[in-house]
Amino acid sequence: CVIYSRLVEGRYPNWRQVLPRRDQAIQIDMIVGPLFAALRQAAIVTDHDSRGIDFTFADGTLKLEASTATIGSSQVEIPIAYDSAPITMKMDHRFVADFCKVLDPETSFLFELENENSPALLSTPDGYAYVIMPMAKER
Q1: Are 30 and 108 in contact (CB under 8 A)?
Q2: Is 79 part of a structural domain of the chain?
Q3: How many Å apart are CA 31 and CA 102, to the nearest integer?
Q4: Would you place residue 5 in the very low, low, confident or very high pLDDT band (cuts 50, 70, 90)?
């Protein structure tokens, strides 16, 4: 097992506690290429202060939305196999892009999530796993 991580300054928790338990997770089969293309389109309006993109899973689509006061807003949708209750989580687009960049665009992966506040687990059939913590939502 090989673990890849972006270096972030600060105190680190026990990594076994960071990997989310997947007992109640919703599993969505996805392909890297379409997600990465949509992510790049949505991220075009982000800047250093607002890197978060809203990922909304609902009714067979993944909608990526981003907005900034100075640049504008973007909204991109891709079809996915999802028919559960809508879930919206805000994630730093750079972390999702880091996952996509190391994989072939045709690679299938599993996007697992439980709710908008729990970590997302992205994993490939060959054992590559990537955990992304959601960003705090603005109030």
Answers
A1: yes
A2: yes
A3: 13
A4: confident
Tokens of 40: 């790049």
pTM of the predicted model, to two decimals?
A: 0.83
Is residue 36 situated within a structural domain? yes
- CA 73, CA 75: separation in Å to the nearest integer? 7
Q: Which amino acid belongs to residue 48?
A: H
- Residue 47 sits in which domain range? 24-132
What is the residue-wise DSSP string for 15-70? Answer: HHHHSPP-SS-EEEEEEHHHHHHHHHHHGGG--SS--EEEEEEETTEEEEEEEETT
Give the β-pairing of 87-92 and 52-58: antiparallel
Residue 28: both structure tokens together = 């969505």
Residue 125 corresponds to which tokens in the numbers above?
A: 């059939």
Residue 139 pLDDT grade (very low, low, confident, very high; cuts 50, 70, 90): low
Token duo for residue 3? 């673990």
